[in-house]
Task: inverse folding
């Protein structure tokens, strides 16, 4: 699934169909996400019905959170009839504005403005209230705090159609990793405390985290090799999603479900079958392989990863899909 924060923004049917047509011959399946608002600017609803008919599997303003509750309410109501899912990054910007990292002991120690956890938790609580009112479907992505996850758990127990995902770096790292001011750790939502990280890990193992969202965000060298204040948010993650998730210590079957089966169920994407005569759609991986992640291994044009030089366990070695085979050795 690809977020709509492209240039131009994927906010009409023609752009959804363009993505599907251009990706048809790729060895991977591309599932477009359409924007909720025109140009993802939060001001006017986009043509979601048409985009859904054109192949959009879900709707979101991508990296931008929908700040106006009235606009989110309309979006949820609009999608309810189509049984489509609205994806939201939880971030109340009037509270988080100016924050460079998680607000806490580490931000004080490093002398950096903080982004408080309540900016995320308040947005989650608000969105769930609107979800209950509209009886629609909502997916919260980038959950990073214990309390935020607890609020989502409670909503699930109420029977609301809510799901959530965590990023690989919120499962793998905490705000203590920013001690060296490495701008590659600057992300949004920010890395939280070790306590929050462990809570997200436990939620992953327990199944409270429904799936993992890569939040893959390539940045130019100039936008990361600068003062922390001016660095852009984001890191590359696609190559290391499996390795980082595998480090959490969950069963392989659980990891497979969270990375492949659960997302397809949430967004109503067909689940491939492994049986004689069926078209192969497989990822090849080695759970026990340990390796040092080196810059030369990176396939992305960007190199903004804080994990270069780190030892990782579990390696994806290839894919088989659309009668094509790609090996990464």
Result:
């Amino acid at each position: 699934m690809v977020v709509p924060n492209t240039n131009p923004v994927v906010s009409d049917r023609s752009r959804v169909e363009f993505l599907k047509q251009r990706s048809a011959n790729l060895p991977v399946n591309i599932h477009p996400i359409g924007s909720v608002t025109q140009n993802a600017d939060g001001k006017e609803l986009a043509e979601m019905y048409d985009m859904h008919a054109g192949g959009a599997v879900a709707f979101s303003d991508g990296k931008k959170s929908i700040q106006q509750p009235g606009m989110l309410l309309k979006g949820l109501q609009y999608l309810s009839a189509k049984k489509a899912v609205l994806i939201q990054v939880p971030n109340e910007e009037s509270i988080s504005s100016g924050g460079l990292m998680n607000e806490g002991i580490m931000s004080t120690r490093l002398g950096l403005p903080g982004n408080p956890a309540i900016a995320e938790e308040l947005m989650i609580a608000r969105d769930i209230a609107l979800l209950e009112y509209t009886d629609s479907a909502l997916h919260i992505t980038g959950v990073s705090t214990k309390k935020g996850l607890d609020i989502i758990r409670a909503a699930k127990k109420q029977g609301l159609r809510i799901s959530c995902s965590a990023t690989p770096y919120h499962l793998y790292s905490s705000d203590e990793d920013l001690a060296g001011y490495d701008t590659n750790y600057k992300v949004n939502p920010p890395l939280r405390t070790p306590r929050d990280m462990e809570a997200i890990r436990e939620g992953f193992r327990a199944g409270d985290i429904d799936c993992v969202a890569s939040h893959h965000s390539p940045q130019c060298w100039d936008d990361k090799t600068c003062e922390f204040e001016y660095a852009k948010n984001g890191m590359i993650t696609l190559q290391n999603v499996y390795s980082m998730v595998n480090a959490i210590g969950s069963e392989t079957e659980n990891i497979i479900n969270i990375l492949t089966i659960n997302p397809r169920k949430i967004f109503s994407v067909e689940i491939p079958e492994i049986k004689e005569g069926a078209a192969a759609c497989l990822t090849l991986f080695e759970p026990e392989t340990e390796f040092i992640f080196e810059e030369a291994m990176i396939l992305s044009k960007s190199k903004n990863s804080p994990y270069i030089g780190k030892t990782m366990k579990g390696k994806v070695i290839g894919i088989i899909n659309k009668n094509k085979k790609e090996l990464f050795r």
Remarks:
- The chain is about 35% helix and 15% strand.
- The longest strand covers residues 281-292.
- The chain has a mean pLDDT of 95.
